[in-house]
Design goal:
mainly beta; Cathepsin D, subunit A, domain 1; 9 strands
Length: 125
């Protein structure tokens, strides 16, 4: 799988202040992971702690918060992991899906996509 970098803007929970962060687009990551120092500076508060499996198989627990993120010109509310020092900033699937963006690994870019609404047995009249 190809990986690439993409700049996003992380905001405070009200969407009034934003900071640019370069992230690694990671479709293997559930949540967007950002430096705890940036999130604290933007007054993002942890709402709970989640267990996360790392790529090497280890399991860790990290604080999870909710805030605004601007990606490809769209501002969405998303869940973010407070990263420890040295952890990479990742743009995860939860945020990508909220912004209706798909990954084009060959072109190393994000592309708009449709949301899905599949209702079994729905009348087509």
């Amino acid at each position: 799988m190809s990986t690439f970098r993409h700049k996003i803007h992380v905001g405070d929970p009200t969407g009034e202040r934003f900071e640019e962060v370069e992230t690694l687009v990671d479709t293997g990551a559930t949540f967007t992971t950002l430096p705890a120092s940036v999130l604290r500076r933007l007054n993002v508060q942890p709402v709970r702690t989640v267990r996360l499996r790392m790529a090497d198989g280890r399991v860790t627990e990290r604080p999870l918060g909710e805030t605004k993120v601007r990606v490809q010109g769209q501002t969405v509310t998303t869940l973010v992991v407070f990263a420890e020092n040295g952890m990479p900033s990742l743009l995860g699937v939860y945020t990508l899906e909220a912004a209706l963006l798909a990954v084009d690994p060959a072109g190393q870019r994000l592309i708009p996509t449709e949301g899905l609404l599949m209702l079994a047995g729905e009348s087509r009249s």
